[in-house]
Specification:
The structure holds two protein chains of two kinds. In chain A, 57% of the residues lie in helices and 0% in strands. By secondary structure, chain A is mainly α. Chain B is built from 16 helices and 16 strands. The radius of gyration of chain B is 29 Å and the shape is globular. Classes of the chains: A mainly alpha, B alpha/beta.
């Protein structure tokens, strides 16, 4: 009886949308990385820039290959998530590492860290950190050859090509240990206090005039980008602040208890990749929890592991391990830290209020 | 004072309210050549026509009665002749045609009866709620739930607070805003009449703080009466949802699976309060409503008071027509409204707006994979985890989706609105809820069938038992009858 007069394909509500888009978010994060990266290029010269370029291109090319292999549209490249993963990886590499470290690392990050799990949004572990840790355990020598900041005295273009592309070994005059590396030996000797007094300058360390990874030496510039992201509401404060707070608090307490064995909070917060880790890596959407409480716990966990590895572990720096460790806990945190639902108590039972029948006098 | 901390989540879509909010409601529209009155103007069952083709009807004359269960009456919006009872293209979610009454106005606009002039406050609450039922009033905020049923429930339970909902949070829509500015006194009287019916202690009028003129007008109108408080609430979407409005005004939450009655609260929309006032004060049934005609494709956006059944095209023409072909025509607000199949469909009781949107306004993109950015979690006013719910709904794992709050979802669309991957989250939830409902229904059906089968088996058993007994009795009788013969035989 009901003849189908018209069946129009209807689009579901809402019929309007926020301007937010994935590519916009990714590009904003990349933009936030620009100051620290540019400063890294200045500190470590052409080789750093080349390594960055190689790493980012390798990430994008691997992404394209993976998409092609899966018969997916190359349209997905537009979201720039591969660029971001490659960029983040490059920032954490030793600035004069050979090209195959960057290219191989980026390929590993994208192919194994991301596409093996099913592509964007499906990976459990942060691809950049996965690649960094894989490189660190496989090629410890290349991954721990730190260059002293050179500024404008960096090598010219041709020398740089040689450094990056033809297995050049730096002479000892150019390299140096990071402060965290030095402290690692200091922990055993119980001379942390003495070491940090002679080898550590808080201001210089914050500004980035130290040996270290390509673009994470300047906590100040990383923070600048982070503030931009916070302002844009691309990241929230929960993960980074709880992470930094926990590391700082643990450092404060233990430093007070035993300054010869534990570094000061300032040293912890201004060295290594903690700022980059807290604001750019731990906050990775895909691998961090979604509710606010879970995010705070996630951050706190990262902070604790970082402190533990730096103070008692076998590696001088522990951001990568800390983030990967907490990544593994993310599904668990998400499961047990669901937000309280409107009209329900925290354990999910409906709030206990019952309608009162009208009193009839 | 701390109301802004009370609700959580929500989004702040661009308002697009400026133009229509500044213009008076267009009333006294010319009569359209034909009115189309679908029978499903309320939530629940269709109403049933009580007129036949060729009947002459007067303005306000009842032309359809409540169907079974939830339903309402329908009245002739103007005087004229019934020219058809047939299926029409209708703004129904199914996109299918729906039955409707067609009315050709005679141009006289002749009322069935003159307006009442007696004091409604002198009549009894029961009488008044019957009158609301007869007037065919439904919730005009969008839920189109029959108002009389809400009032009766309000009488059954002890209601302390009546909330008049002026939180018109959908972008573009300004009908409640304009109504409050222009007809504040009528709305306040309507609220007082509801108060009279449900015998509550106080009335709170909750208005979003982006409507200062409406707040001022309502405060002015409420001044002479005690126990009416006009309170500003923060402007955010979905403040107009009853649950969020209650939370913002009282700090309390409606229990999951419960109703606002449980808190001793009843919520009515401002437009409904106005309709109730018109029905009780003047005896006028619900014949027209104010709707916003807006969107970048409309020549001069306006709020229009249109008779039910007026074709949307006619209403748009009153606003200067369309200046370009809209990418999407929407009935209601852009967040929860429904795409219109065509402009031939009529204005109905639930039509709070008609939007002709450009593709830029719609901003639709192909969905991409979820990146777990958790913006939907932040935006959800109910504290749910939409990304997880969607994940499970997509996999048809409705039980897990329920664990993450599928049942508590109010389908407000905030999550879809903020999703940077443009995932139609709310669409998944609608689907999942539909499936759950279907499952529940079939489970009910199954258990009913089992019950019936069990009953049948029992009955058959009993019948068989009886039959056996009868047979046995018969056999025994036969035996007894035969026995003498047998004995004879034996004897011989």
């Amino acid at each position: 009886m009901n003849s189908k007069l018209s069946v129009v394909p209807q689009r579901p509500a809402p019929h309007t949308h926020d301007r937010a888009a994935v590519d916009r978010i990714m590009l904003n994060v990349c933009l936030a990385l620009v100051p620290a990266t540019a400063f890294g290029f200045y500190l470590f010269g052409w080789p750093a820039a080349m390594l960055w370029l190689v790493t980012c291109s390798a990430a994008i090319i691997t992404e394209a290959l993976c998409l092609l292999l899966q018969d997916k549209s190359l349209h997905a490249l537009r979201d720039s998530s591969a660029l971001l993963s490659g960029w983040l990886l490059a920032m954490t590499l030793p600035p004069w590492a050979p090209w195959w470290i960057g290219a191989g690392g980026a390929a590993f990050a994208i192919a194994v860290g991301k596409h093996l799990y099913g592509g964007v949004g499906q990976n459990i572990f942060n691809p950049a950190m996965l690649a960094r840790v894989a490189l660190l355990v496989s090629f410890p020598l290349q991954m721990t050859t730190w260059i002293q900041p050179l500024g404008f005295e960096s090598p010219d273009f041709l020398t740089s090509v040689q450094i990056i592309f033809s297995g050049w070994q730096p002479n000892d005059g150019l390299t140096g240990a990071t402060i965290l590396g030095e402290l690692k030996t200091g922990y055993a000797a119980g001379s942390v206090e003495a070491l940090s007094q002679t080898h550590f300058n808080g201001i210089q360390s914050l500004l980035g005039q130290t040996a270290g990874s390509m673009a994470e030496t300047s906590e100040f510039l990383v923070l600048l980008g982070a503030i931009w992201l916070l302002h844009k509401r691309i990241i929230s404060w929960h993960i980074p602040i709880s992470m930094l707070l926990v590391t700082a608090l643990l450092a404060l307490v233990s430093h007070h208890a035993n300054p010869d064995h534990y570094a000061s909070p300032l040293l912890h917060l201004s060295s290594g990749g903690i700022m980059l880790g807290a604001f750019f890596i731990a906050t990775d959407y895909v691998t961090s929890p979604s509710s606010k409480l879970a995010q705070c716990l996630f951050g706190a966990g990262c902070g604790f592991v970082v402190f533990a590895i730096r103070s008692w572990g076998g590696f001088p720096e522990g951001i990568g391990f800390a983030v990967l460790f907490m990544n593994a806990l993310t599904p668990l945190l998400d499961r047990y830290c669901k937000p309280r639902v409107y009209g329900r108590s925290i354990n999910g039972k409906p709030i206990n209020v019952k309608a009162q029948s009208r009193k009839v006098n | 004072m701390f109301a802004w901390t009370r609700t959580r989540g929500g989004v702040h879509p661009t308002g697009h309210k400026e133009t229509t909010a500044q213009r008076d409601i267009l009333t006294q529209l010319p009569l359209p050549p034909r009115l189309i009155l679908p029978l499903f103007q309320q939530s629940g069952a269709n109403c049933l026509p009580v007129v036949k083709v060729g009947d002459a009807v007067a303005k306000g004359q009842q032309i359809a009665v409540s169907g079974a269960g939830l339903s309402t009456n329908l009245h002739a919006p103007t005087s004229g002749t019934i020219v058809g009872l047939q299926d029409v293209v209708a703004p129904h979610p199914s996109g299918l045609a729906a039955p409707a009454i067609l009315l050709e106005p005679d141009g006289e606009d002749r009322w069935l009866a003159p307006a009442r002039s007696d004091d409604p406050f002198a009549r009894s609450p029961e009488q008044l709620s019957d009158e609301v039922e007869r007037a065919g009033i439904v919730g005009l905020g969008g839920a189109i739930f029959p108002s009389a049923i809400k009032l009766r429930q309000g009488r059954r339970f002890e209601i302390k607070t009546l909330i008049i909902n002026g939180g018109e949070c959908e972008p573009y829509l300004t009908t409640d805003d304009r109504l409050m500015r222009e007809r504040a006194e009528e709305i306040i009287e309507g609220a007082r009449l509801i108060q009279h019916i449900i015998e509550c202690y106080e009335i709170i009028v909750g208005i979003e703080d982006n409507k200062p003129e409406a707040i001022a007008a309502m405060k002015q109108a409420a001044k002479p009466y005690g126990k009416i408080r006009v309170q500003a609430v923060p402007a955010m979407y979905p403040m107009g949802s009853a649950k969020q409005m209650i939370q913002a005004l009282t700090g309390r939450e409606v229990p999951a699976g419960g109703r606002s009655n449980d808190l001793g609260i009843l919520v009515h929309n401002v437009a409904t309060a106005y309709a109730i006032q018109q029905a009780l004060r003047y005896g006028r049934p619900l014949l027209s409503r104010v709707l916003t005609v807006a969107g970048a494709c409309v020549n001069t956006p306006y709020n229009v008071e249109a008779l039910f059944g007026t074709p949307i095209q006619f209403v748009i023409d009153q606003c200067g027509g369309l200046i370009k072909k809209p990418a999407r025509l929407v009935m209601g607000g852009p967040m929860m409204g429904q795409q219109l199949p065509s402009t031939a469909v009529p204005v109905m009781k639930g039509t709070s707006g008609v939007l002709a949107l450009t593709s830029r306004e719609v901003n639709e993109k192909t969905p991409s994979p979820c990146i777990r950015c958790s913006r939907c979690v932040e935006a959800c006013p109910m504290g749910l985890v939409p990304l997880e719910m969607a994940k499970f709904a997509r996999a048809d794992d409705f039980d897990s989706a329920s664990d993450y709050g599928l049942r508590d979802c109010i389908l407000c669309g905030s999550c879809s609105y903020v999703c940077p991957s443009h995932i139609p989250l709310v669409n998944y939830f609608e689907y999942a809820r539909g499936e759950l409902k279907q499952r529940k229904l079939s489970a009910q059906k199954l258990s009913y069938t089992q019950q019936l089968t069990a009953a049948r088996n029992e009955r058959m058993e009993k019948e068989a038992e009886l039959k056996r007994a009868a047979k046995a009795a018969k056999a025994a009788k036969k035996k007894r009858q035969k026995k003498p013969a047998n004995s004879e035989e034996c004897d011989s």
